[in-house]
Amino acid sequence: MTKNVPLIVIGAGPAGLGAAAEAAGAGVETLLLDEQPGPGGQIYRAIARSDAARRALLGPDYARGAALLPALESGAVDYRPGANIWQITPEREVYFTRDGKAQVLQAARIVLATGAMERPMPFPGWTLPGVMTAGAAQIMLKSAGTVPQGEVVLAGSGPLLLLLASQVLDAGGRVAALVDTTPRGSLMAALPHLPGMLRAPSTLKKGLALLARLRRAGVPHYKGAGDLRARGTEKIEALRFTAGGREYDLPCALLLLHLGVVPNLQITRALGLAHDWDPLPRCWRPRLDSWGNTEHEGIAVAGDGGGIVGAEASEHQGRLAGLQAACQLGKLNPADRDAKAAGIRRALAAQRAARPFLDRLYRPAEAFLDPPDNTLVCRCEEVTAGQIRDFVRLGCLGPNQTKAFGRAGMGPCQGRFCGLTVSEVIARARGAGMEEVGHYRIRPPIKPVTLAELAAMDPDDTGPEGGFDRDDAA
Ligand SMILES: Cc1cc2nc3c(=O)[nH]c(=O)nc-3n(C[C@H](O)[C@H](O)[C@H](O)COP(=O)(O)OP(=O)(O)OC[C@H]3O[C@@H](n4cnc5c(N)ncnc54)[C@H](O)[C@@H]3O)c2cc1C
Question: Are residues 145 and 131 in the same domain?
């Protein structure tokens, strides 16, 4: 018989850790599942294993993640790393693989805290060897202390790009250039949102400090860059672009790209939940109430997976979802829940007030939303933007039909990376809005699962108990 668990939290980033800590603190039996080998999610990746030197290198925003570990260390939360969730049903059955076996558990409540992923940044040549995302480079830095060899060029837009450039320098790496694709005029357009930004002054200060750090290090900063093309035959040899009315051809062996982050919606989409298009940050988000509840009874979303809010706000949202789960499970009365939530809501409101400024300032340049014809959009199935436009001319109305027209979105990533771009290209080619064009229909399994893992599945087997050991946590 499938084992029942009162609360399953999925994702051990700030939102999931916050949710699990609050719920377990209120006495809820809480299971925390995450695919990674250690807790922390994206921002605090490998925090449990990192020594003082690495924490100092990655900065105070990284080091503060250690404060989220006590609920795991005390055993209050049953934490199971290495658990890949590949299906959740509206009836709250959670299917995952761990230790080479598929498993299923039945939850009374679920908090989805699956975070964000980097927005694709398609332009001609972006799939050449030697081009990777800034997030991937940062993952290597956080989990293994790996610093890019030789000179690296960073291109794109957004705070994470500046942060990574500064972290690479601090780790002894060399940054040859920052090719900033934030469109000219974005700052002016964002200024009406400045009062909100000033409610979270530390965010603004951090951004200015990063820019100052890069200036001090003498990193060439090309602003308002456009018309990017990665040049090379076997691998990238140079990045071409225009900036300030001039054309550049920068020799480059490693190019790191970043264009902001967008919610990871694979599970909420596969559950068939309602999603809204958010025109300012140009991404979808699931429809939630102020506790993070979705329209499916007992399933809530917290953190960047519900709309990009940043790490601190993600933790606050996680705590709210944890309190709400505790209340729904009878461990906390509504008055106590609301009293505990009041301070969290105030801190959350200040963080959220900063978002419109950041979203407008770092809205991606149009060229990456609607790339040139010769740009690969679906990397798995090698479908170009031009082919998507051809499909529209032949009558294709939305992303789901592109699968029949030319297999876009049908590769191993199941549309995770190309979904937004395919919809944006179709919307422009049709002259339609994103709400009308829609998004890929996502079907389970949302993560690869092998036949051997399925064959090993035993609904009575709940797997080895979880546990937290700093030495194992990568
Ligand atoms: C690559 C990358 C690097 C970033 N680096 C920084 C940074 O240095 N500083 C900063 O301020 N912000 C950073 N961000 C933004 C930051 O991720 C968020 O603001 C914050 O971490 C959001 O917290 P969260 O708990 O919502 O999600 P996350 O921290 O993203 O945690 C989500 C967790 O869910 C897990 N998960 C997702 N899907 C599944 C599944 N199907 N099965 C099992 N587990 C799953 C993930 O592996 C992850 O551990 C980064 C974002 C990305 C994408």
Answer: yes
d(CA 281, CA 124): 23
Report strand pairing: 238-243 vs 255-259: unpaired
Task: State whether 138 and 229 are in the same domain.
Answer: yes
Any domain includes 34: yes
Q: Quick check: CB of 306 below 6 Å from ligand 1?
A: no
196 and 137 within one domain:
yes
Are 130 and 253 within one domain? yes
SS3 49: coil
Q: Quick one: 37 and 97 in the same domain?
A: yes
Determine if ligand 1 sits within 6 Å of the CB of residue 237.
no
Ligand 1 centroid–CA 333 distance in Å is: 31
Q: How far is the CA of 225 from the centre of ligand 1 (A)?
A: 28
Burial 83-115 (b: 16+ CB within 10 A, else e): bbbbbbeeebebbbbbeebbbbbbbbbbbbbbb
Q: What is the CATH number for 100?
A: 3.50.50.60
pTM: 0.94
Q: Ligand 1 mean position to 118 CA, how many Å?
A: 10
138: Cβ below 6 Å to ligand 1?
Answer: yes
The verdict on residue 473 lying in a domain is no
Mutational test site, ligand 1, from 44, 114, 132, max ligand atoms within 8 Å of CB: 114
Whether 113 and 141 map to the same domain: the answer is: no
How far apart, in Å, are the Cα atoms of 51 and each of 45, 56, 70, 142, 145?
Answer: 13, 9, 17, 11, 11
* Residue 134 sits in the same domain as residue 230: yes
Q: Which domain-ending residue is among 274, 309, 332?
A: 332
For residue 157, report the distance from its CA to the centre of ligand 1, in Å.
18
Q: Which of 243, 244, 252, 247 is nearest to 179 (CA)?
A: 243
The answer to whether residue 465 is domain-embedded is no
- Residue 457 within a domain: no
- Full residue range of the structural domain in which residue 62 is found: 3-117+262-332
Report CA(310)–ligand 1 centroid distance (Å).
10
- The answer, yes or no, to whether any atom of ligand 1 lies below 6 A from the CB of 382, is no
Task: Supply the residue whose CA is at minimum distance from atom 10 of ligand 1.
Answer: 43
Number of domains into which the chain is organized: 3
In angstroms, what is the span from residue 303 Cα to ligand 1's centroid?
9
Do 173 and 213 lie in one domain? The reply is yes
Residue-level pLDDT, tens digit, the chain, 474 residues: 788 999 999 999 999 999 999 999 999 999 999 999 999 999 999 898 888 988 888 888 898 999 999 989 999 999 999 999 999 999 999 999 999 999 999 999 999 999 999 999 999 999 999 999 999 999 999 888 888 888 999 999 999 999 999 999 999 999 999 999 999 999 999 999 999 999 888 888 999 999 999 999 999 999 999 999 999 999 999 999 999 999 999 999 999 999 999 999 999 999 999 999 999 999 999 999 999 999 999 999 999 999 999 999 999 999 999 999 999 999 999 999 999 999 999 999 999 999 999 999 999 999 999 999 999 999 999 999 999 999 999 999 999 999 999 999 998 888 889 999 999 999 999 999 999 999 999 989 988 899 999 999 877 766 556 556 555 554
